[in-house]
Every structure is written in structure tokens, then in C-alpha cells.
Fold these 3 entries.
Entry 1:
Amino acid sequence: MKNFNIFSILLILAVTIFSCNPESDDVEPGRVENVVKNAIFESMKEFYYWEDKLPETFNSANFSSNEEVLEALRFKELDRWSYLTTREAFNAAFTGQVTGVHGFGLGIDQDENWFVTFVYNDGPAGKDGWQRGWQFLEINGKAVSGYKTANGGYNFQLGPNEVGVSNTFKFRLPDGSETTRTIIKEAFQTNSVLHQDVYEMAGKKIGHWVYQSFRATQGLSPTRSREVEDSFNFFLAQNIDELIIDLRLNGGGSVAVTAQILNYIAPSSASGKVMYMDRHNSKKSNYNKSVNFSKTGNLRLNRLIVITSRGSASASELLINCLAPYMDIVLIGDDTYGKPVGSFPLSSFNRTLSANNVELVPITFATANAENRADFFDGFPADFKVGDDLTRNWDNREEKRLKAALDFISNGTITGRIMHDYYKPKWEMIDAFEGLQKEFPVY
């Protein structure tokens, strides 16, 4: 009888413990949700860069969703970027795999005309022949002016990001003709390099590289991009004297791929010296590290010309900041976004997040350059303010920002007319997205 009672008690205890296990199939949904919310708080307390701004206690029952939890915890004064996603979506984004999009960018000029700003080669828009400089007239039979919202923003109403969703667009082409195109959202592999070329001017060979996002190549090391290797092998073979990098549409991406590019561009004298230093919160100071340059190839550049905009963020700004102590950097276009901090995903550090396929990507570190410059939340100011020329494609040397860069290289200055036509956009594509998509915006 005593043995039976002991067995019964042990069985009851086992069932009770099992029912409290968040990984059990028998858990009440509400309890699982609270377990995940608590895991978000615990992970933030451990890794968040502004951990000292977080509350000491947390009641998960006060929030109806994981997103509400993160929003309540986010240090709003400086943090515009922490987000939640899934591990699959995170990995796909950082290797250029997109799903349920048309594959184009959109920009609005000072007169509120809409234009295609970029096109991915293998996306529906690219396969349909779209090009930068096409002007939107209608979307699904409705004039583009009808998509402006009461608060001055825009709601493009392109439907959910799902494969098979179609939209119809009417354009005015650069030659004045009009065309109507219907395309369907697909899944495809993006390209980060939108254009590359070499121009010969003033006795120099000038490389021109339009780079849209810092992404590793799927199947390679997460620190490498084959596109980057191919582009710089091209410039090395051409023996260029100057380089113009266009980052106006580059919202960031992989720090490792940024380092890959930096090692091609930096002077040989920088090899072995500090590229950047990572800073974490006081609990994670053991994660702090310094990364040094290791020169790749034999490019010998005395300066770098960078075309920028408010859409140039994160890794784009890291590239500028890391090179500034070692070579002249000339920024042409507009002030950059202002993101001197970065993230890494935390699900691999938390069993509950991993088991529930919740990828938490909060701000976890800041980066400083060799001169200890780290706080540029207002962005880097452009040396020469030049408005975006949405009417011309990448290879058109009359495109205002490219023309300004070429003029600067040839003459050491930029004509007053180009700078006189400068305008500050009321809206940039980076404004239309949040979370993971803010770093890789695409329609």
C-alpha cells in the first residue's frame, strides 16, 4: 500500500511537471505565449545594447502579442530597428532570397512624381524589362496621386507579400511613350550589384559600382559574397585609379560582407590596423572585439567617392566610418540615415525562442572606427548636396549624382547648377518598411 501511494505521488508530480514544460504538446496556448514573451524579456535583459534602460521586472500578462512586448521594451529615444521575425526569414534576407514581391524600388521626386528606382534582374519586374527612370502613372487603374494618405504618407496597396499576387502598372517611359504592364509576385534570388562600369576621364580610369545591399551568397561562407568578388576582380583587371560607390539605396546588411569590401578598398598601409571595434552592454563586455584590416588585391585608391542618401544606413555607414581614418571619403548626394549600431539574432541563445520559431533581433552592439567614432545617430553629412535624379538609369552619365561625382574627380569641384537643383525628399523608400524589411526594402 505504501509503495502504491509513493508511485501515485510520483506519477502526479511527473504529469504536473510535464504539463508545465513549454515544449510539451499539452501546454495551454496562453501559457506558451507568456513563456515566449518572458523569453523575449530575458533575452533583452541579457543582450540588449541599452539593457540599462529596461525595467527590472516584467509581467507578460499585460501584453497581447510578442510585438507589443518588444515595443514596450524598446529604447525609443535611439532604437528604431529592433524587430521580431523567424529564423528562416532572417537567413533568407541576408542571402538575398525574397518571396512574394515584384522586385523593384520606388522613389518620389520633389514634384511628387513616382519613378522606378531599381530592379532586380531575376524578379518579375526585371524579367518584364522594367528600368530605373520609368515613371508610374497608375497602379491598378488608379492614378498614383490617389494613393497619398491624409498624413502625407503613401499607401501603395500592392496586396500581401504572397506568391501569385498580381498588380497592373501604367508607366511613362523616358522617350515619352506609355506602357501598361501586369506582373505577378514571385520568389527569387536578388542581386546586390545593380550596375558596374569603368569610365576613362581626365587621364584616369574611374570605377562606378552601384551596390544595393550587403548580402552573403547562399551556399558560400556567411562572410563572403561572390558578387563582391566578381566586381572587384573586374575593377582590378581594369586597373582603376578612382572608385565611385553608389550606396543611395543601400539600407545595410551583413557586417562580414562589409568587411570583405573594406579589405578590397582600404590602402595597403591599413592592413593589420583597426577596421572597427564592437561594443556590447556591460553584461556582455566579453563579446567586445576589434577587427583589423587584411588587404585583398592591389587596388591603390587615395580616396573614395560615395553617393549617399537617407536610404544609406547601417552597413553603408559602417563602410564610410571604417575607411575615414585611412583615406579621404567624399560624400555626394544627401546625409545618411544614422545607424551606428547593429544586431545579431538571439534564438540560438534561448531554447524557448528557438522551439517556437521566434527570432528576436534587437540592437546588441555599436561599432566604433579606429578613431573611436561611434555615435552618428544623425547620419553622416554629405559634402556636396545633390538631389536624386530619378529620371535617368544607372549608366547615364548625366544622372545628377553620378555627374557630380565625375565632375569632382575631373575638376576638384561640382558645378553650382547641380547643387542649386538639390531637393530633400519628403519620403524615402526606407520609410515605408519596418523590421527586417527596413534593411532590405523592396516592393
Entry 2:
Amino acid sequence: MIRQPSHLSYVQCNRCLMDTSDPEIIFDEYGNCNHCNRYFLRVRSEIRLPEERARALSAVVNRIKDDGKNREYDCVAGVSGGVDSTYVIYKLKELGLRPLAIHFDNGWNSELAVANIKNALDRLKIDLQTYVVDWEEFKDLQMSFLKASVPNCEIPTDHAITATLIKTAREVGTPYVINGSNVVTEGILPISWVYYSHDLRHIRALHNQFGTVPLKSFPTISLFSFTAHILTGRYRMVNLLNFLDYNKSEAIEKMKSELGWQYYGGKHYESIYTRWYQGYYLPKKFGFDKRRAHLSALVCAGQITRDEGLSELERDPYADNNLAQDTDFVIKKFGITQETLQNIIDAPNKSHLEYSNSNRFIEGSSSLRNYIRNRAKQV
């Protein structure tokens, strides 16, 4: 494998859409990158052959049903109003399971996301429990990540969702947490663009340095507790879409026709903050376009062509999604000025590893990560 030195000119993968906007990208002798090479390894390892999927899915569903007998709900599932989570809820109902839908409201829901959740759950007759975060606490934590100049400013939301799902599952008496994460359409994302959302030590470090509001009610789970829940079977994550022949465009059309679901314009754009963060903040400050990773996965999955992906990247998400208006909304909601935001964007970019973290433990636990993936595959 040949690492592309940072001082060399722009290079793009011959197979997917990833490029040297990931400073750690590596190309092989065929011009293919480490991301798509790893994608195909993960598919072979984590996705069953078509003839095995139905049997594996049936085994998982039957186990959840058996373990959930005499309980009101046999599993919990997070819903955001987006494609993957809504389709998961749709399939759970179709499979005869009794999920409790959980929504983490961080204050950034778009009206379309709220309508999608309501329409889907009303038609499917699935109960919903919503956790509304304390806005002053959450705003302060989100601003801490922005002030820290690190790339993954979605960590507060992602961490809180996991903590909320695990806590709620325990309360209703089930270990099964069903989610929409999947290898086929999400199997590419450079680690240099993100960081581990379950690193509570890192979250607290950034908040202690840049925050001012005590986190009294923000949902958290320590890395030790998170690991213990997995190892003891108290938390059994089920990546349902990995058991299906999941095609995103087909899922969208089915939800439109059967659930009254409406598309919102991009990956995770059901959240106003995520839409602004991915479409404006990341490209402006870091030069990262997360569409490149999302579309690369779809190219590798054969769900779009490479040319279609390249054409999509030529579209300006800023213009197509009213991100100028979003920026004004973000400034107002955070209670900051345009100058403050610009200073944040202009500040030197930082790696998450420049702040206190548990990365050494996480990275050193490759066997644990494999165990987690195998548990998600086998339940």
C-alpha cells in the first residue's frame, strides 16, 4: 500500500469517490483507496450471502420474540425521521416485532423530520417515547465542540442517542436495540473526519475546557459501562439492515407510498444542525464533504454508478438546501454573532487526539470491536 504524501497533488480513487481530502488516505498499485478496499472486506465479513440471509433474519427475529414474551415491547429502536431509521421501524412491524420507538430531540429537528416520524408511527401503530434534551446544557456542549475546532461536532448527539437507547431498553426490560447502521450504504467514513462518540472522557475534556453550563441531565454512558453492557449481553445491538437486501432508493419509494414519508435532501439532513454542519461547516472549515463518503459506499454497493456519484458531488448543497438561511438560524439559535462563527471557522483546525481521550484503549481493543460486530451479526 502506498500512502499519498500530503504535499503531493490532488488524487482521487479509481473505484470510489474518496480522495486526498482525507489526509490519511492510502492508494494501492491499482489506484484504489484503502476505504473501498476495506469496504469490500467488511461486506464479505459482516454481510451474509443472499441464500443465508433469510435464515439468519428468521433466527434473530425468533430470538427477540422469545426473549420478549410477556413484555409490552420486545425491542427498542431509535427514530430520527430519516431513511434508515424509518425503514427499520417499517421492517420491524412487518416482521411481527413489537418495538418501542425512541426519538432523541436535541432541538434541531426539521419540520419534515417531525412529520415523517408522526406519519410513519401513526400508520404502523407503534408507540413513541421522546427524550427532549435540556437545551441550555446541550447548546453549551455543542458550542464546546465548535470552539475546540475538532471535526466531529456530532459526537454530543450520537453519544446521547446511544445512552438514551440503552437506558430505555433497560427500563422496558429488553437488551435488544435495533438501529439503521449498515455496512452496505454506510461502510465508508474516514476516521480522520470523525472520532468515537462513546468516548465520554473526551466529551468531558472538551466541555471542561470550553463549556460553562454544568451537564446535569445530558444522557451519558461511560466507556466502561458501554463495554460491560455489551460483554454481559445487557445491550445487544442489532443492525437489522445488514440482514436484508437493503437498497436505499427502493426503501425511499416504499416509505413514500406506504408511510407518507418525504425526502429531505441529503444524508441525515432531517436535522437542521446536521444539514448545516455537513453542508457548510465541514467543507468551509476542514475541506471535508461527507457526501463523498456516503456516495462512495453507494457506488461500491452498486446502487449508483461512479459517474452518478461524481455528478451529485458537483451539486452545491449550500444552494440546494438553503444553507445560507440555515447559517442565520444556527447563529440565532446558538445566540452568537456572525463574527464569532467566523472566528471559529478561521481558528486552527485540531485533531480530537489533541485533547484528553481514550483512543489508545479503543484502538487497542480490536478484538473487542470484532466481538461487537459479530454480536451484531449473530445477536
Entry 3:
Amino acid sequence: MSDVRAAIIPVTPFQQNCTLLWNDTTKKGAVVDPGGDLDRIRKAIADSGVTVEKIILTHGHIDHAGAATELKEELGVPIEGPHEADQPLLERLPEQGRAYGFEGVRAVTPDRFLNEGDTVSVGDMTLEVLHCPGHSPGSVVLFSPQERFALVGDVLFNGSVGRTDLPGGSSSALISSIKDKVLPLGDDVTFICGHGPMSTIGHERETNPFLQGETLD
């Protein structure tokens, strides 16, 4: 039985799925996409007894990265991700905050940008990095071949795909990312997305109206 555990913490008015991911034996883990509502994130960490070793960002939008700098300073841990193509978004987080009514949002400077083919460790789990532009230029998907599990940010949803009408978005790039990189991971792969319920790649291949007709080719 797997020792990997995940707790989804809905944060911000956008109900973004901040995720606490950890190994239940070692109690070492990571916070993925701390967009805001730090009190909720702190409580989830305390309730789980997890020692957070890093913060991981799937992309640079306010609801995913808005509280990352403050949490980094509180915990004394590095920020890994997203791809460097989202650096302009991370630098403009204070402007994003003002536009959406978020107070005190600070820019984010990751300790490590992530590239296609990189790996990220969470406890003793290794996540493979896929650069999946379209929703944002620097969006990444994180995949564990051993656990058959992925964190997909706002690339793919249960029944939908990420919006592409924000700066740097591209519908053609997004569908290519999903078709060429996410679907080939396998129908049995379970994923946590940035908003809404979890799903599997197989379920989305069969039922997602944006993906009908897509194959592994």
C-alpha cells in the first residue's frame, strides 16, 4: 500500500486546490500552489504533522502563487517551479493581486525553475516534470510513474481544460500539451487539478468534450 498522502486545501475566492503532498512514513512533504488563505494551509500542515521541505508551483497565476513568498519565509524552505517562461507573471503578482482584490501579495522568485525532463523530490517520491504551456507559458505538470499520479495545475480539469484567454495563453498550445504530454501518461493515472474534483486521464479521454478524438499517437 502506498505511503503517499495528499490533502487538498481550497484557497482564495477561486477555490484553488492547494495541495499538501507527503510520505506518511517519513512525514516529509511539500505544499503545491499556495495561492492564499495561509491560515488554512498552516492548519492543514499542523493537523497532518508533516514537515514541509519545499513549495512547488505549477504556474504563476495569483490563485496558485499569491502566498508562496510569505510561506517560504515562514517555513524557511525553497520554492521550485514553475518553468521560467512564467517569470513575468511571478514578477507581476502584486499587480495581479491589486486587480483581483488580494491584499499584500508579493512577487515570487523561485529558487529553482523547472524544465522538461527535470525531477522534483517529495519525501522519497520522485515527480517528473512536463512543461505544458497553453494556460500560461510556463505551466508544468508533475507526474509520479510509481504512484500513477499527477499534479496538473490548470492544464486539465475534470470535464474541461484550462482557460487560454489570459496573457500568454494559447488554446492550440494547451491542446498540444494535453495530447502530446498528458494523455500518453496512461488512462490509469489519477490527477489533482487546480480547481474542482480529481479525475483520471482515462475518464477525461473518454468524456472530456475538449479532448474527444484525441489518441495516444
